[in-house]
Amino acid sequence: MPTILKTHNLTKIFPPAGFAPHKKRKSEGRHAVDHVNMTIRKGDIYGLIGRNGAGKTTLMRLIAGLMPPTEGTMTLFDSTELEQHRRRTGCIIEAPGLYGNMSAPDNLEAHRRLLGITSSTAVADSLEAVGLSSTDRKKVKHFSLGMRQRLGIAMALLGSPDFLILDEPTNGLDPRGIAEIRAVLTQLSQEQGVTVLISSHILGELSKLATCFGIMREGMLIDEFNREDLETRCQRCLKMVVDQPKKAAMLIETLLGTDNYDILPENTIRLFDYVDQSGFVNRELNQNGILVESITPVGQDIEAYFMSKMGGEDRA
């Protein structure tokens, strides 16, 4: 797959409070983004996860060109000509700027003129993409929060971008609004081939939407993985260490009637059935000549896994 975004040691350091540039005083400052190496490929819906203060919004601002990096480089669409290729990028970082006394089409028309977009169908196409074509002349101040969020996405879509950057687009939404945003982004990805970078605190919903994930902690990108990796990591199983793994595997098939297991190095077997019956499994293997050195249920739900990876406490 072609690479949409690749960063190399991307770093943003903010000076400490009270720092005076004219003073020749050495200070490291705060690493809001700390040597991040991220890869997003065409067609990805990349879920960026981290607690408040982890650096997600700052990283998105660097990618969108809204602030310069302190160190590091990046490529967009396999090119170092960033300004040229940012024209193929749409972004909504933090709250979209909307005029409450104007309709959705008028908001988009004002934004279209500001951006210098010449397409005569840009407004209608963007409204259609997010399901707001039928709002007519209804003023935005009367929109639900979910509708306003969808209108913000429509603003980001005005230039028909290939890459969409969205910072917390589901923040504050009820379950229906979240489902609407998820449907919009899934359709954009699957039907129009738009690549999406999205951050969210709603981890369960993000796991349903994203195809790959990056976890940030204290400014660092500590892990990247795809949805299949996530499902494997979170799958519940009985993890057993036995003295004869091949014989134990045969007994699992004959005595327990399942082949839903795998054999790992160091005499370890993972059994994906009977997860809540460790005593029964232990007894059956022991009675048939297998020494079970340890048997432990492992695995957790996806949200708990994300929380364990993010670590730390929330910061404003």
TrEMBL record:
* Annotated ABC transporter domain residues: 5-243
Annotated GO MF terms: ATP binding; ATP hydrolysis activity
Name the UniProt key words of this record, in alphabetical order.
Answer: ATP-binding, Nucleotide-binding, Transport
Which SMART domains does this one have? AAA
By its UniProt entry, which InterPro entries does this protein fall under? AAA+_ATPase (IPR003593), ABC_transporter-like_ATP-bd (IPR003439), ABC_transporter-like_CS (IPR017871), P-loop_NTPase (IPR027417)
What Pfam family does this protein match (any one)? ABC_tran
Instruction: Write out the similarity annotation.
Output: Belongs to the ABC transporter superfamily.
Name used for this protein in its record: ABC transporter domain-containing protein
**Native organism:** Eubacterium callanderi
